[in-house]
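>> received
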Amino acid sequence: MVFTAVGALALTGCGDDGGSGKGKTSGGSGSDEPSSSAVALPKLDGEKISVAAVWTGPEQANFLKVLKEFEKRTGATVTFVPAQDPIVNFLGTKIAGGQPPDVAMIPQVGAIKQAVEKKWAKPVGADAKAQLAKNYAKVWQDLGAVDGTQYGVYFKAANKSLIWYNAKAFENAGASEPKTWKDFMATAETVSASGVTPVSVGGADGWTLTDWFENVYLSQAGPEKYDQLAQHKIKWTDPSVKDALKTLAELFGKPSLIAGGADGALQTEFPASVTQTFTGGDQPKGAMVFEGDFVGVNIAQTKAKIGTDAKVFPFPAVGAESPVVTGGDAAVALKDSKGAQALLTWLASADAAKIWAEQGGFISPNKSLDPAAYPNEVQRTMAKALIAAGDAVRFDMSDQAPQSFGGTPGKGEWKTLQDFLKNPKDIAGTQAKLESDAAKAYKS
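>> returned
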């Protein structure tokens, strides 16, 4: 998703506590009692609610803090159900077995639509809709709606257009932050000449490669083409796709610039692509890693401090503007119960957003959240840019696609771009495979 408000974000040289949120309260208001402006929730003593999400590790732990406060305010008991991608398949298994969760956190727009088409999803109730109207730009409400009916509450958003870098590696190489793709490639060569591999790529997770493509494509082809490709109104064999793949091949075609080369990248999962950038002292495995604001969660697993050891700059402009792509996770009720609707209302509130915001590694699309809740200036800057964008955002393209094309490990766009990383010379073949898979997915 693009927000035009970003341009040249001054994201570096700031930060204070590395995003770990240590010393912060988890209750949102810092006291046992909610504030007088708190969201109104019903009493749910004895009610059991289950929530499915694909979050693991620190993300899961932080979400559990949000759920714990909901329990405290309502008297309900909430169980977290670990889910797997693709989440539609996971939910289908649960529903077929007669054990659907009350609420699912769905990370793809296309998956919300599928849940509605399968008649799994329940419309958002009046209380949650009131919170959405009060706290969210229209675009975030529209992203959670299908055919004019509201089904999703976007709780967690992401700025997926950031390059994080090891400040010491840049300093040792005499490198500076690039503004354009041409400068980015020159910076990579400068870092490489210093003896450090410049770019860490988590290619084992195909979604990271879709994000590389989307940022290049959005900046190079522009928002109008981006929308057309996202809706499959133009084909993946379009010349604009060829241009974007040629640009990506400038990096992917030079294995010496990628940590472990293409083979190493394809064996590196996303969390490791981050941690290997900020460990190893003066000789990290990679000096830069591309991904969203949520990288802060993984950096917190190292000794690096955000703003000093770990800095960040906007994805370099390939065309006239730096792109900003966003993603997000929406809460969708799968049972039409009082508890499920109360949880949606809670997740649409600024009170709930504040709890995770204080922990770091999180951006909320909730415009009523006080930016002071974020633990460092890096997070605040990224969050303010998202809110300032208003309705000008563009959502992650692969997350808008049918899940079989844009959101399934080992298939569709994920697999084809992994193959492209290994063989970036085959641009025509890559386009043909992308179009073939997309045509099947959008038709079905």
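>> The first helix runs from residue 57 to 74.
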